[in-house]
Amino acid sequence: MCDDLMSGANSTTEALDLQAQLIQMLSSAGLVLKNGLLIAMNSRTDSRRFAVGEREIATDGKLLLLGSESGYIKGVGLQSHEQIFQHQCESAVNCCCFISSSSVAFGTQDGKVWLFDLRARQPVTIWEESNSPVLCLISVKNGVFCGRADGSSSYIAFVTDRCIQLTGPGFDPVYCMAYNGESIYTGSRDGLIRKYNVQF
């Protein structure tokens, strides 16, 4: 970024003036440029580092969810590139989705569906309706639809006791699901995409 600014300068003096302006702008924003990295200084004088990226747009305040075979669900800040939280589960985390800005759901290899509070950084509820691995999850109207390795697809409501079971592909795993506001779509190993009109 600094080199790009300098290449537009007509003289060494102009380049030094541009560099001084850049340093002053960064300093007023509480930033320091060192070796191509921006270092943000806070009031406690500790720092966090993040790479300067021209392609990075609107990453502030956004969280990336990661599930791992080792059983961890992790949250990483997109702008800071730092881990925000981590939670260890008893089984591999196969899928995850945001429910709201403060909660996420994820499914594990042992068949559990977890509702996790990001503020408290702990599980709120765990559903154990089947031992079949949860392969996909989508958030739909105060609940989640989950697709499993045994071919079943079901809806778990967070607030009510309502349960919806979709007729599926028999014993072929359901790998993906989508919702367009009216219908649920599933994709499974048998190569078919199924459409369900569900009334909530």
Structural topology:
Elements: H1 2-7, H2 12-28, E1 31-34, E2 37-41, E3 47-51, E4 63-67, E5 72-77, E6 83-88, E7 93-100, E8 103-108, E9 113-117, E10 122-127, E11 134-139, E12 143-148, E13 153-157, E14 163-166, E15 174-179, E16 183-188, E17 193-197
Antiparallel strand pairs: 1-2, 2-3, 4-5, 5-6, 7-8, 8-9, 9-10, 11-12, 12-13, 13-14, 15-16, 16-17
Keywords:
4-stranded antiparallel β-sheet, 200 residues, 17 strands, 2 helices, mainly beta, single chain, disordered N terminus
Characterize the structure shown.
Helices cover 12% and strands 47% of the residues. With 200 residues, it is mainly β. The strands form five sheets. It has a four-stranded antiparallel beta sheet with strand order 7-8-9-10, with no helix packed on it. A four-stranded antiparallel beta sheet has the order 11-12-13-14, with no helix packed on it. Mean pLDDT is 82; it is low at 1-9 and 43-47.
Task: Give, in spatial order, the strands making up the sheet with the most strands.
Answer: 7-8-9-10
The low-confidence runs, each spanning 5 or more residues with pLDDT under 50, are 1-9, 43-47
Total number of strands: 17
Helix content: 10-25%
Radius of gyration: 23 Å
Q: What would you call the structural class?
A: mainly beta
